[in-house]
Predict the structure.
Amino acid sequence: MILPPEEKTYHPSDGLFTDAHVPDFDAYLALYKKSTEEPEEFWADVAQEFYWKKPPSGQMLQYNFDVNKGNIYIKFMEGAKTNICYNVLDRNVHERNLGEKVAYYWEGNSPDHHQTITYNQLLRNVCRCANALKLLGVKKGDRVAIYLPMIPELVYTMLACARIGAVHSIVFAGFSSESLCERIVDAQCNILVTADGVYRGDKLINLKKIASEAVERCKERFCVVVKHHAFRTNTDASTLKLMTILLFLLCVLQTPWDESCDIWWDDLMDGVSDECEPEWMDSEDPLFILYTSGSTGKPKGVLHTVTGYMLYTSLTFKYVFDYHHDDVYWCTADIGWITGHSYITYGPLANGATSVLFEGVPVYPHVGRLWEIIEKYGVSKFYTAPTAIRLLMKYGREPLQRYDLSSLRVLGTVGEPINPEAWLWYYDVVGQQRCPVIDTFWQTETGGHVLTPLPAATPLKPGSATCPFFGVQPAILNEHGEELEGEAEGYLVFRKPWPGIMRGVYGNQERFESTYFRKFPGFYVTGDGCRRDQDGYYWITGRIDDMLNVSGHLLSTAEVEAALTEHPSVAEAAVVSRPHAVKGECLYCFVTLKDHKEFNRTLMEELKRKVREKIGPIATPDFIQNAPGLPKTRSGKIMRRVLRQIAHNEKDLGDLSTLADPKVVDVLFSQRCEAAA
Ligand code: WT7
């Protein structure tokens, strides 16, 4: 494929966005200027749309980004009182007359399973769940762990927590029992909400079994279980009913059950009131914790608070997708990740949007599933990840041609740098050159989009996340912390907080400061490399710490290494990334075995299983190479650069003079893995 030169820009909005919120680049610049020069007025305007028990007043933003001047903190509209659940539900129902509007089209893993949920229904279900949680003793400030698949109960539970002031800690339902347990313990949750099981494609995952293993390790009090895989069906046909009952019995037999702490969701909700007064929260009260990989191996509990997150996800959703009331919006992420928190739950609901909530996977039961859903619901704004685009590209145009995709207006992407081939395919084939491709750069920590085009306003360049969102002030620093002007490449940092930025690492102020603020005092450090071109556009070049991005999920090399070295045969392990056609990056592992241990297929399978058990299937290694020795400096530090070059098959290894024993490099090169393990 011939790629366009970097200067070529795309501006497909003509005629498509006659009523855009930000109609052109000048309008963007004017709003951006206001957001940075008069932030108090800018955010006060945004706040006006929301319901306040006690309105914001006085100083809006207080913060310190400089470790040399004391503790790092960010406070936004402190003292104001509100409730985010009230704002995303009751406000739509009572003040905006949206009660009968569809909040979610739930689309199950199987195309036969679907459900429509209006704002009225959502509010009632959330209130019931909130009351049920209260019955279990959950109070303001308590942490609730949620380990659920993409079903409506996941949204009910998170919003129920927000309603009563409990802090949700959602763990992606693809993590292992060990990862789940680690997160439950770290956040000191005493309730876990899970489901019996879920089908992902044609694979059944016994969630309750995994949850029970986790609970056993960490002894929390209650485990609420949604009957899902056994029960959910849309049809009343008697044969199906019979099958469902049989499946249910089968499931009860398989579902580990502890009478002393396990409760079925339905039993808990039975007879509970569907009205619940919200708990009025201070702006800076915690809203949720969400874990993200840390470069030391232990995941960090990223903490977000109520008001800043509410305003920021709401505003980014409105502008970045140029949201209008007749839109049908679909984000394919899982709510277990920040993308789902911000852009399936809070941002869309705050705007009163109609969204698709999808449980399944892109290619089940057929490779046209996503396109089928777009046609079925008339999706106008679509948001997915580069890894999904690359996967679907493999099947060519034909599966798309079977469906009517003319409802599409905006195509978003997130999670990793999008390669220009994938960008152009998304633009040409999916969007038929009508729809702007919105490459949104952000992180669990940023709460919402920070670098992003706006559909009608920003000329696009394939592979660039373009320009900062309102209130966001990026800078590029060199290794010495000097700020680079104009065209430059270096560390991407931010010089000031915006409302949605994280407030801390749960229970660990020291880690918060050392991870994000110590390297360059005065700046928030993203961990990403970045280039700014002659037009001032930003291009993310990838992580510059020991993190890997596999299919849009961050993993730490240390975490995978720790899993590998738990195997009794392994003496040492080093993990680096290798490019992968669909996943973007994949794991290439070097393992040094203990004396007299043999490297063979069985061992490889055991190592893969070990990683899956410790972290989850997303971390499964693609390549495992036997490494009789690892390239180390004289002080014993592993030279990852060299390992990365071996994994990438880069023959020119540059300066190896700091290596204690350069010969190991030849050995590793000669035994390099060509094919995946
Ligand atoms: C890391 C954050 C934000 C939701 C999903 C991931 C990478 C994310 C982009 C993009 C280039 C991107 C960065 C970032 N990343 N979006 N559009 N272009 N890189 O959240 O797990 O916190 O990961 O994902 O490396 O730091 P996360």
